[in-house]
Write a structure and sequence with these properties.
13 strands; Rossmann fold; 17% strand; homodimer; 6-stranded mixed β-sheet
């Protein structure tokens, strides 16, 4: 078989890009893989208990793995609302980010890239560090000084931690400068990262007995998880394995809600918004890289976008903990939205809610 | 099919006991299930992505689950030593205890038991609380005041936390008094808990391509994980699915090492030892409930028992973190032992090391 070679193009202007360009050299737009591997149920490696069961559908070989993916799907009920919680916080470093990281890092290893930079509110950096360091990649990770001490500790164990004061986007700006000369292993920009996120959809499809749910609610910062689910179910649809696409519902905190504003104003691209402090610190992103695609997915799947206040997020986080589901505040944003907008959902709707990040990272030390 | 009814007997004197007796009413010895379900590969429910894939081999129906089991098996290498890490800390509450807890709690639910007591150094209590509270069981959990703040917070979320000052065994004594009048949901005593632990062996057997490893090293407090592996592989052996049993290696901290002392002195039962403080706070157990069985398993499998110092444990924990494996100190005891006694293992030995508890619980808060 011919080895697979991904072709990288700009999603805005169709220009061709090099494999480690992080944005379009012509127009600055986000890049994509022009020739993704199609989903093929016959090529699932059922004996592999990780997302590498879908290895034949991923744009890289596997060289290093921490056992990411194959997370539990748990039926639960909160406040009379039934849903399936996809426990993404049981990934190796405690967040859904490991899906994207493992695909990105394995592609880097395959191309002998051993120096990268990245910026992160915490979980993406902790994930990249845990995959990069042990596999011989030196990662410089730019983090806001306001990120949690636990996440900073995790990053510093296996990468070079660079703290940047100011708003969240200040760390991004510092990283962009460094990306002029070093490969940018960006969870926000990399199409390889996004390819890894698609496996969450493949798993849900298997776990529901080879069908699609009616709706998926995710927190949205840059929207990697949201787009991973959307693209994953689109691939299953193209393969003729699901009849229709799930409604994709984006949820954001009121402190930083560009997608909700774009949705409400029926725009094609989200406006650049405020980036206020919110307890949902994993999704303080006021310029999501693939904002146009997120809004298009919402339109095309009859989806929606909801904003919630911090008090509602804290209440939802507590309700999840009382069901044995210990997650960080960001992960509780979709439940807060479901409680507030429950009348937008028919009673027998099959709802998936990924729980994105572990609540253990924020607990008090000994 | 006739519904399965477990028969409870004493392993020391063969007396019959009631289902929720926690020790033999005649001699005080530990209890067992006289008629366990045999392992039957044809009855594995391969579509279920949790330990309930082995539901037909477990002594209870499933009523409540958080998606426990099916943890990753990751090949890694430390200090030139190759082994497979079984990531038990990726269970729902961050420790291997969830395997036993889910079987015990589901049996309690099946028998309409809604009040229990338990004592725990932290992880077992956090696990029981997360399963009991959400499924409508009131649990009073006795914990040493010296347990970690994170674990106490987890327990208090879904159970009644009772702090007991003094040594670890003081909490046990207080719990035993309460167990006079309330069902004792004990991770140390319950044969249902132990039945759940056997699933770790079934998973390793599947993950290795339907074979047994050569050796398994575990931390040993009461030895639930150790005996779960041993009994699980014994069940696979009885079913004719593995040719021989793995060597079972018990590892303990020098501060509290009754099994190592019993092994070195070739005793049938471990002596009651000191219970000094050690960084491996999950295994400060100076009178393991099934100590005789642990020593017998070591003898019968050509196993061993090793003690290690805290400094070696801390070094091993750091080495695991540098491989992206974030575990608590107790989990690093086997690696410390493997490094120290490496010459007791042939070069091509297939070694399994379960990593028992999450390192995230001990990280600093925001």
């Amino acid at each position: 078989m011919t080895p697979y070679t991904p072709q990288i193009i700009c999603i805005d202007c169709d220009a061709t890009a090099a494999i480690w360009d992080w944005r379009c050299p012509e127009c600055g737009g986000p890049l994509d893989i022009a020739n993704p591997q199609p989903f093929d149920a016959d090529r699932i490696d059922a004996g592999t208990w990780s997302l590498w069961r879908y290895g034949a559908m991923l744009p890289t070989d596997k060289r290093f793995s921490l056992g990411e993916g194959m997370t539990p799907l748990v039926q639960t009920s909160v406040d009379g609302l039934d849903f399936y919680a996809k426990l993404e916080y049981l990934n190796p470093t405690g967040s859904y980010k490991d899906r994207g990281t493992t695909v990105l890092v394995n592609r880097l290893l395959g191309e002998n890239v051993h120096d990268v930079v990245e910026d992160s509110s915490g979980n993406a950096g902790a994930s990249l560090a845990a995959y990069a360091g042990p596999s011989g990649i030196h990662a410089r990770i730019f983090v806001s000084t306001t990120a949690s001490a636990a996440k900073k500790r995790l990053i510093a164990t296996n990468a070079e931690l660079v703290e940047v004061s100011g708003v969240r986007s200040a760390a991004t700006a510092a990283c962009h400068a460094a990306a002029e000369t070093t490969v940018y292993a960006s969870h926000a920009w990399s199409p390889f990262f996004l390819a890894g996120q698609m496996t969450a959809a493949y798993e849900v499809w298997e776990q529901l007995g080879h069908r699609a749910p009616d709706a998926i609610l995710t927190p949205v910062g840059h929207g990697g998880l949201f787009l991973g689910f959307a693209r994953g179910f689109a691939a299953l649809h193209e393969a003729g394995l699901v009849e229709r696409l799930p409604r994709m519902i984006a949820t954001q905190a009121a402190g930083c809600d560009p997608i909700v504003q774009g949705y409400e104003q029926q725009l094609n691209a989200p406006p650049v918004t405020q980036e206020e402090e919110t307890i949902a610190d994993g999704i303080i992103v006021n310029q999501p890289v693939r904002g146009r695609e997120i809004l298009r997915v919402i339109r095309e799947t009859d989806g929606a976008a909801y904003r919630v206040q911090d008090a509602a997020i804290i209440a939802a986080q507590k309700m999840l903990a009382e069901r044995g589901l210990f997650v960080e505040a960001t992960s509780a944003v979709p439940l807060a939205a479901l409680r507030e907008y429950r009348h937008d959902f028919a009673a027998d709707t099959t709802i998936i809610m990924p729980l994105t990040g572990s609540g253990l990272k924020g607990l008090p030390g000994k």
